[in-house]
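Q: Sequence in, structure out?
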Amino acid sequence: MLMRRNAIIILMCIELMLNAVNLLMVTFSKMHNNADAQIFVFFIMVVAAAEVSIGLSIIVLMYRKVHSIDVNILNRLKN
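A: Exactly. Output:
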């Protein structure tokens, strides 16, 4: 069975994982009355925003080259 992996779905999953970690860190920070984790969450959000902008630009370039956003096609571009 051939599974199609969409690049946009992969980026959305990474963002979902980062947001889950952010929520967990803010909750524990609030529970222990320590603001250090909340500052760290801000830096994670900055990195996530940069990752989205770079990832979407790579997806746009990939779509222009092969007219698909299927990640399995990238293996064919190695040759």
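The helical segments are 7-31, 36-66.
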